[in-house]
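We were asked to recover a plausible sequence for a given structure. The inputs and outputs are reproduced exactly as logged, with field labels preserved.

PROBLEM: sequence recovery
POSITIONS: 106
GIVEN STRUCTURE:
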């Protein structure tokens, strides 16, 4: 399936911070695990890089496809649950308080 509209959204980019207390190997391991479990295991393609200029602000740049790959290697349906993933990436205080997965962040 191909996108036919000139303004079709093929991907979305994000940034998220990493603890500066973690060494580079911990940052890479966490980022790899998080992206694999949250996006790639759901069929999405992800491209990411860690930026750290030594200014105390290590962070990840992440680019995700808006459609997953199906097991037969065809493109899947537009990822309608993308809003759910956004809430996971950028939780509000009420989301954190009401979801057990975020409790270790409090």
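RECOVERED SEQUENCE:
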């Amino acid at each position: 399936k191909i996108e036919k509209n000139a303004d079709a959204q093929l991907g979305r980019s994000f940034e998220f911070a990493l603890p500066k207390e973690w060494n580079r190997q911990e940052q890479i391991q966490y980022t790899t695990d998080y992206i694999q479990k949250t996006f790639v295991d759901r069929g999405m393609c992800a491209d990411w890089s860690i930026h750290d200029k030594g200014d105390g602000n290590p962070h990840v740049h992440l680019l995700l496809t808006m459609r997953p790959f199906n097991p037969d290697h065809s493109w899947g349906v537009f990822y309608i649950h993308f809003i759910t993933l956004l809430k996971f990436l950028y939780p509000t205080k009420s989301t954190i308080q009401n979801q057990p997965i975020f409790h270790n962040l409090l």
